[in-house]
Amino acid sequence: MEIVWDAFAQAALRLFGGDPATYTVIGLSLRVSGLSLLIATALGVPLGYLIGSRRFRGRGLVTAIVNTGMGLPPVVVGLMVYILISRSGPLSEAYVALVGEAMPRLLYTVPAMIIAQVMISTPIVTGVTLAAVGAVPAELRLQARSLGASHLQEAVLTIREARWGVMAAIAAGFGGIISEVGAVNMVGGNIEGKTRVMTTAIQLETGQGNFGLALGLGLILLGIAFVIMNAFTRVQHSGSRYER
Fold first, then answer.
1. In this structure, which CATH number among 3.40.50.300, 1.10.580.10, 3.40.50.2300, 1.10.3720.10 belongs to the domain 2-15+24-234?
2. Which of the residues 80, 120, 191, 244 has an alpha carbon 20 to 30 A from that of 144?
């Protein structure tokens, strides 16, 4: 029980004691996950709409690939990104062939962490959006077409009808990356002041035997996740009350 009280004390000290290292880690965590989520939303929502609203040959296979991506182990994603952006990786070699000079180092940088988190969250956003769009009656799209709606107007109407599912997709995408540690540790390197985020800081402190501090950081991370997820929930509920 002592370690639990120590964790609360450490969390309060780090959060309200003006510790700059803690604020840096929190800020970087939110920046990396926030930018990753924006990119994943920009990619995943349109992809989910296209797959969920269209009937084409191989749709079942594409859906299965997306669903598989939703459960892709983060450490596998980290390995893939590591290989792609390393100095001897295929992306670097292609860059040299096109530009004629060495590719800027991406490993152990914030962009590498964002790339990894985008690869983790995009299938999640796509898969949940796909399911939400698929639940919208096809008659709605047919009626929109009969009234002369363009493809863009049809898409906007469908997304609007499926917006609570789309909101859930974005929330699920955020949940999948704010708590992720394997991929960002592999491609970010957990460098203090540069690429250290909440999850990798927790992993580091646990490995060093500082369980109270690790648990305290975990409580801060849980609090941040709760605040953001609660904001998503309030938006969904406020929309439902407005409709009624």
1. 1.10.3720.10
2. 244
